[in-house]
Amino acid sequence: MAVDRTRYSHLHAASETSVRQADADLLRRLARGDRDAVAELYDRHAGRVLGLALRIVRDSSDAEDVVQEVFSQAWRTAPNYEASRGTVAGWLLMMARSRAIDRVRARQARRDAGVEPDPETIPSTAVPVPEQIIANQQAARVRGAMAGLPVEQRTALELAYFEGLTQSEIAERLQIPLGTVKTRIRAALAFLRRSVRS
Amino acid sequence: MTMERHAEIADRLEAYVLDQLPALERREVEEHLQACAACAKDVHELRAVLAGVAASVPPVAPPAALRERVLAAVSAEPQEPLRRERRVGIVQQPRRPLSGMMPLAAAAVLLLAIGVVALRLDQTRRDLAGEVGRVQTLNVELQEQLKRFSGQTDLALSILTAGDMREIPLGGRESAAGTAARAYWSPARGLLVVADRLPAPPPGRIYQVWIIEGGQPVSAGLLGDEPGNRGMLIVTPPRPGTGGDVTVAVTDEPPGGLPAPSGTIHLAGSI
After folding, report:
1. What is the maximal distance between C-alpha atoms in chain B?
2. In Å, what is the CA distance from A9 to each residue of A14, A130, B168, B224?
């Protein structure tokens, strides 16, 4: 599938602040019941929402379901969105993570019950969007910082964030003590926090 | 909030933002966040970091069909009404009353305090106004009483110093047998009766004083009950006296007195 670059082109030179401002304006239109605003919100964020969903569920069909659910939920709950709680992108991605993890758990439960085969690898239909469309500088800083994390810390954090595992599940998966899991996740988040601040 | 409690919660903030806590513990943390600005700030920053982690995942271009599907789904779906309470469907974030609500809360507390003080002041003002009113009334009463006593003292003195004044010893009878009483009678100025150690009148009765001239009893008034069983009456002449023989008697009568004596005589004296 060809990437529609023009659709994202307006983000190229956009500053983080103006992107957030545009998102906030969009949410206000959404909150007033403007359905056209959903299309704009989708065009701005669907790529990242799908990327995150795919990263978690590792199945394009499930990931697309998650995208649909996230934008439906955004539309539904827009009247009660509070800008003070975080950025619009952060809000959409949090919903995406939550929905995606729910799917993974449901799938795991079905697999445990023997009704579903083990997952395949990420389908080849997934097309990465060029990196430069990410205007969010904070995300870029975090991504850079993630790369700088000691591998055992990054692994613990990724299991918690992208796979939605509890601390004891991570301990079991990695065959390390529970206290070590806590320590690694805390250290990872503290490191990322410092990197975001600086 | 104890420091132990704070430390215990602060230890779980990472697990909280990662949705790793069971429901009960999550609620404990959320309650704590309402009260602890430091922890609320930590959570806010941790969430920002996680948003960064999410956004750090490379985007994937969605297929065109997904866009149509999303817009079709939204077109069929109603929006939820604006609510004041916690949002459904959004990963729960704590409200942070200490940072956001503090000025409002402080203002509310101040207004409340001012209101309470104002109410108290108003109450005090009204209490004082009432008190002033009562004092004024009491003052008027005291003035009248003083005037009356003063007038009675003057009258008593004028009776006692009158040239036509005659002293009439009053003999006690019945229950008043032990009572020492005297009447000072001036046909021109009036009558003064003083009774010492006068027993209380029979239940439901009062003492009434009579002046009897020429066999005709005329009421001189009621014998006031004074502390120490001292009865006293100071009156101007109920009618101009003749200066002739006179009897002063005290009977018990129904409250308010009667035009003519009907009850038992307790004190009596003639001259």
Report:
1. 137
2. 10, 11, 129, 110
Run of H or E residues at A87 = none
Among B95, B114, B120, smallest CA distance to B35 is for B95
Give the total number of structural domains in chain B. 1
Chain A to chain B Cβ contacts (< 8 Å): 196
Q: Is B138 part of a structural domain of the chain? A: no
Tens digit of each residue's pLDDT (9 = 90 or more) over B151-200? 778 888 888 888 888 889 888 887 788 888 889 999 888 898 888 878 88
Topology, domain A1-134: Rna Polymerase Sigma Factor; Chain: A (1.10.1740)
- Each as own residue / partner, the long-range contacts of residues A166-171 (CB below 8 Å, 24 or more positions apart, any chain) are A166/B20, A167/B15, A167/B20
**Cβ contact, residue pair B46, A189, below 8 Å:** yes
Q: What is the ipTM of this complex?
A: 0.79
State the residue for tokens 């206000």. A28
The answer to whether residue B253 sits within a structural domain is yes
Residue B266 Rama label (left phi>0; alpha psi -120 to 50; beta):
alpha
User: pLDDT, tens digit, for every residue of A15-54?
Assistant: 667 777 888 889 999 988 898 999 999 999 999 999 999 9
Q: Do A139 and B55 touch (CB under 8 A)?
A: yes
Would you mind telling me the total number of residues written for chain B in this entry? 271
Rounded Cα distance, B114 and B104, in Å = 15
Classify residue B41: in a domain, yes or no: no
Give me the domain span that covers residue B193.
Answer: 166-270
* Spatial separation of the C-alpha atoms in residues A54 and A51, rounded to whole Å: 5
Distance between CA atoms of residues A97 and B51, nearest Å? 10
| B122 in a structural domain | no
Which three-class secondary structure state does DSSP give residue A11?
coil
Cα–Cα distance, B207 to B263 (Å, whole number): 9
Q: Which helix (H) or strand (E) holds B72?
A: helix B64-75
Distance from CA of A95 to the nearest CA of B (A): 6
Distance CA A186, CA A174 (A): 16
Residue spans of the domains in chain A: they are 1-134, 136-198
Q: Which CATH number is B211's domain given?
A: 2.60.40
- Note whether A54 and A120 are within 8 A (CB): no
Mutate to test the interface with B, among A61, A93, A196, A198 (most CBs of B within 10 A): A93
Helix (H) or strand (E) holding A104: helix A88-112
Architecture of the domain spanning A136-198: Orthogonal Bundle (1.10)
Q: Is B231 within 8 Å of B207 (Cβ atoms)? A: yes
